[in-house]
């Protein structure tokens, strides 16, 4: 007998988004709001979601939105939180909702400031691994080997040669009380972590895996399949860091990364040696996470 879902039925993201077919960011917003509820204010910088809600005075979300400059999300949510506190409205959850470019690159300074100040807010980065709204340019979150319009594939094999920036490690270094990775392929884990972030006092960071069919050169009908494969191949592990303690919340099955890469045209140019190198890197990163969990368990047993 199938157990009942823990995902709330009420919807706070309604039809009318202008997102592309199969857009992972649409699902990130939907599951985020299911976890947080209606008493939420979202600050959105320049990104896909700055245009996806629709045109004023209509939009597809059941919560208030504040739009800010590309680099200012961290400052914006700090200001909103301060204003709500002055009004005594402590039950309202403040969320910064930005893409990877507006987080790991352009918005990193303001994000760092909000984290350092322990602003009582949640920052959600929906990670589609490039600047998708402006033409699929590479970002600091674009993985090694990926094609983008600014890392084209040619005779010099000029695809992206730098590794993906580890934003979770950067945020953990700030000493924030809660940080977690989530995927649209695993909504119950997603909603559970959003509720946890909501109930934490202080700054929380959520790294959301968000497939982008146009930018990833993939079938829009395979968004969930790709999102699940990212976890099962351990390319995108699901874990949380709660008050410094790391817990893997869903074990990856250890499928070969080639299954994940093969569904995306942005990796079609990679050689067998390139794929093997990516597999080695993925295995090493996952082993490091497991070692950290094992070390904590060993200390608890002493």
Fold and architecture overview:
The structure is a single chain. The protein has one domain (24-301): Rossmann fold (3-Layer(aba) Sandwich), CATH 3.40.50. It is 38% helix and 15% strand. It has an eight-stranded mixed β-sheet with strand order 2-1-3-4-6-5-7-8, with helices on both faces. The model has no long low-confidence stretch (mean pLDDT 94). It is globular, with a radius of gyration of 19 Å. The chain is an alpha/beta fold. Helix 1 (24-36) crosses helix 7 (187-199).
As for the number of domains, it is: 1
Number of extended strands: 8
Distance between the termini: 40 Å
Strand content: 5-15%
Total of DSSP H or I helical runs spanning 4+ residues: 11
Question: How would you summarize this macromolecular structure in one to three sentences?
Answer:
The chain has 302 residues and is an alpha/beta fold.
Index terms:
alpha/beta, Rossmann fold, 8-stranded mixed sheet, 11 helices, 8 strands, 38% helix, 15% strand
SSE map:
Layout: H1 24-36, E1 40-44, H2 48-51, E2 65-67, H3 73-86, E3 93-99, H4 101-105, H5 108-116, E4 122-127, H6 167-173, E5 178-183, H7 187-199, E6 204-209, H8 213-216, H9 223-232, E7 238-242, E8 245-250, H10 257-261, H11 272-301
Parallel strand pairs: 1-2, 1-3, 3-4, 4-6, 5-6
Antiparallel strand pairs: 5-7, 7-8
Helix pairs in contact: 1-7, 3-5
